[in-house]
Amino acid sequence: MCLIAIAHRVSKEWPLVIAANRDEQYARPTRAAHAWKENPEVIGGRDLRAGGSWLAVRRGGRFAAVTNVRGVGGEGGPSRGLLVSGFVLEDEPPLPYAKAIRREAYAGFYLIVGDGDVVVCDNAGEGAGAPLKEGFFAISNAPPGADWPKVAIGRDYLTAAMAKHSGADDLAADLLKFLGTPRRAPIESEVFVHSRAYGTRSSTVILVDANKEVLFVEQNYTPTGARDGDAVRFRLPSPS
Q1: 3-state class of 20 per DSSP?
Q2: Distances (CA, A) of 164 to 18, 22, 151, 160
Q3: Residue 79 CA: distances (Å) to CA of 76, 84, 99, 236
Q4: What domains appear along the chain, each with residue ranges and CATH number?
């Protein structure tokens, strides 16, 4: 996934809003978002090669998302997607979970985990784990020190969309349209990526309301860059 934009405790109505694109090789086997066998209260896609995920959420709003980092670390270690599945299937608080990761064992990553509080960590710099402040945040897979315009584009669009829409369905539809629209710009500014072998495989919007009810909407794409059927929608009721 190469763009994740988050609104954290910006809105009383939706304390958590996530808009994200997953960019990946088209040849990598993937299962689209579904209720997981290990825990049907978890919704997310799965990497069929290594078994992890790039973005998943559990009933109540516990979530995790990961991107790779260009130019950091080598391949061959544990799958970064296992950091996502490990968090949503467990109950450890975000900060202890992040700090316990053996960061040196993985290829370059940015990881975001949340369960009320949201924590960001990475192995590209000194990011062993730090709480995310209230506000708007976005991240891509840019190497450390690189200023990719797509990060600001995603953050600013999420800010404007939340100010414009009062309904969850309208907000989700607007964000999905943004995520799925090519800008025809250089990769550093492109939200929707498409090339011969690599591109945006899915766009996902997650809204968690004040009662911890979750709306999860995902649009998948074919290797041609076209929509792969209609968007799939899941609603997770608030915890009892």
Answers
A1: strand
A2: 16, 25, 20, 6
A3: 8, 10, 18, 27
A4: 3-236 (3.60.60.10)
